[in-house]
Amino acid sequence: MHKNFLLTHSEIDFYFSQNPRDFVVNEIPLYPASDDGEHLMLQVRKKGLSTPEMLKILSSVLGCPQREIGYAGLKDKNALTTQYITIPARFQNILEGNLEVLQENQIKILHTAQHRNKMRIGHLKGNAFFIRLKKVSPLNAQKIDQALGEIALWGMPNYFGYQRFGKFGDNYLEGKKLVSKKKKYNKIEQFLVSSYQSYLFNQWLSNRILLSRLCNDFDAKEIKKASQTLNFPLSLDFQSLIEQKQPFKIVRGDLLHHYPYGKLFALQDLSQEVERFAKQEIVPCGVLSGKKITLPQDEAWALSERYIDEQVTESGSHRFAWVFPQNIQGEYIPQKAHFELSFELPKGSYATILLECIAQKEMRGQENEC
């Protein structure tokens, strides 16, 4: 599945393996525990377990129905991760009596506090990551540092990561077949359809990045000529895109969202919103095909239409096209040829996409020789 990227450096070689030593994920909660109420908020560290596997173990050990356990999001299996969950407070004594049993199952309770509500999906601010890259030469370490500086300044594309598309990267093909069969889907089928929705979003975003790259490198006449081959609408105002300073260009009719929180809205004043985008106050959004969805207009619709499948009967939504990683830090350890980096991403964004932006090539699977 081809993706375009906006950074201009050549490919960077390194080795990355998703394992608990070299890949650490810490959930950033949306709010603190209320310190009162009928639930317990637990900060949980797990190792070598997916979130569903962890919830199943907790349910079994505590005797708590899994439906009563609340959590904000899924965390990687092949990593050392912390996240917050809630359980009914009536299970507190059972929990305290089974801490060692949970540790034997690679689950450690780091902190507990009373809370008023059951945690819901999406109730997180984002995630903080630590990643160790290996086999990094001194020259490539310099290039990684420069790439991180560019990402800190301009942000990065919010592609769905390879994890969304299954072991062989082709789940979306099964999802595409399903949308033509108007029926109710079971959970597995819903996942396959969501994979297809994600695939369409990625293709749309890759196409918009290609357009942005052309506008960064060529004049309006050259872009218009290339557009005949690349199927970009000739009605686009290429000159206004060229004049935008930020690498990713926004167009008339784009859907925008206050960043990182706020509401979706339609672009009205292009020059004003370009300035706000550069200040990291708003970001453009793409469409995940489905029902009851606000669609882009004007130039943005012309660039989106072929990536929206009206046969999808699942609920549609919008996703940030662009995100701004925070607190980016990197350190090169020449004796080991390791490069260690840490950063924060908003919820739903993939750390592996940041690595792809650095490497300038796609990653596939848990071990990558980039």
CATH C-level class of the largest domain = Alpha Beta
What is the radius of gyration computed over CA atoms, rounded to a whole number of angstroms?
A: 22 Å
Q: Give the ordered list of helices and strands.
A: EEEHEEHHEEHEHHHHEEHEHEEEEHE
Helix content: 25-40%
Please give the number of β-strands.
16
**CATH architectural label of the largest domain:** 2-Layer Sandwich
Described by the principal axes of the CA atoms, the overall outline is globular
Oligomeric category: single chain
Contiguous runs where pLDDT drops below 50 for at least 5 residues: none
Structural class by sheet pairing and helices: alpha+beta
CATH topology title of the largest domain? Pseudouridine synthase
Span from first to last CA? 16 Å
Query: Largest sheet, described in full?
Result: 8 strands, mixed
Compute the average pLDDT.
94
CATH homologous superfamily identity of the largest domain: TruD, insertion domain
Number of helices: 11
Function: Responsible for synthesis of pseudouridine from uracil-13 in transfer RNAs.
EC number: 5.4.99.27
Active site: 76 (nucleophile)
Enzyme class: isomerase
Summarize the structure.
The chain has 370 residues and is an alpha+beta fold.
Question: Could you explain how this protein is built, in words?
Answer:
Belongs to the pseudouridine synthase TruD family. Pfam families: TruD. Keywords: Isomerase, tRNA processing. InterPro entries: PsdUridine_synth_cat_dom_sf, PsdUridine_synth_TruD, PsdUridine_synth_TruD_CS, PsdUridine_synth_TruD_insert, TruD_catalytic, TruD_pseudoU_synthase. There is one protein chain. The chain contains eleven helices and 16 strands. It is an alpha+beta fold and 370 residues long. The strands form four sheets. Strands 2, 3, 4, 5, 6, 7, 14 and 15 form an eight-stranded mixed β-sheet that branches. α5 crosses α6. It starts with 14 loop residues before the first strand and ends with a strand. The mean pLDDT is 94.
